[in-house]
Structures are given as structure tokens and as C-alpha cells.
Amino acid sequence: METTSISQITTIAKECTRYSFIAGSLLFLIYCLTKFSPLIGVGLLYIVLALVINSIIFLSLLITIIIYPEDYLPLLKTAIVMLFNLPIAFIYLWIITELPLI
Predict the structure, then answer these.
(1) pLDDT at 98
(2) Predicted local distance difference test score (pLDDT) of residue 82
(3) Which residue from 53, 72, 48 is spatially nearest to 13, judged by alpha carbons?
(4) According to the model, what pLDDT value does residue 37 have?
(5) Of the candidates 54, 67, 70, 45, the residue with the CA atom closest to the CA atom of residue 12
(6) pTM (global) more than 0.90
(7) pLDDT digits (tens, 9 = 90+) for 37-65
(8) 14: which residues sit within 8 A by CB, 6+ positions away?
(9) What b/e sequence results for 46-76 when a residue is b if at least 16 CB atoms lie within 10 Å of its CB, and e otherwise?
(10) Membrane-spanning regions, if any (predicted)?
(11) Contact 54, 85 (CB under 8 A)
(12) Element containing residue 46 per DSSP (H, E)
């Protein structure tokens, strides 16, 4: 595969990861500051939507690795970076559901 195509795939995945993190963090921060309870529903909807979109992109990276194994390193690094959003989302969810916010 052309290097440009690999670059495009990794760029899309990195941007999706970045925007997912920023949007989730903003929702979390706004909820923590305002305690506006309808944001919980919005946040859960956001988690489901982000999970679906990120999963599609993640699977696309894995399929591209299988099809073009010679370009596996940048694709694998990007896939690993995408996985960093999962524990952050779980921590945010845990904080909101388990810890009383003062």
C-alpha cells in the first residue's frame, strides 16, 4: 500500500482518538463542575457512540495490518494509542457513579 494511504489511515485514527478524548473529558468536566444531571444521559450516549466509531476505526487498522503486514508498525502504534481512551473512559464513569463529587 502506498505510504500516503497508511498515513491517511493513521491520521484519521489519531484525530478520532484525540476528539473522542477531548469530548469525553469536556463532558466529564462540565458534569463535575455543574452537577447537571441530564449530562449523565448525554455522557452515556456519547460513550456508546464513541465506542462504535472508535471500534470501526480500530478494526480498520487491524484489517489493514493483516492485508499490508509490511506497514504494521505505524498501524499497530496507532491502534495501541487508540486503546488508551478505554481506561480513561472507565475511570470517568467510575468517578461519576461511585465517588461523591463535592
Answers:
(1) 86
(2) 95
(3) 53
(4) 87
(5) 54
(6) no
(7) 899 899 999 999 999 999 999 999 999 99
(8) 78, 81
(9) bbeebeeebeebbeebeebbeeeeebeeebe
(10) 21-40, 46-68, 75-96
(11) yes
(12) helix 38-67
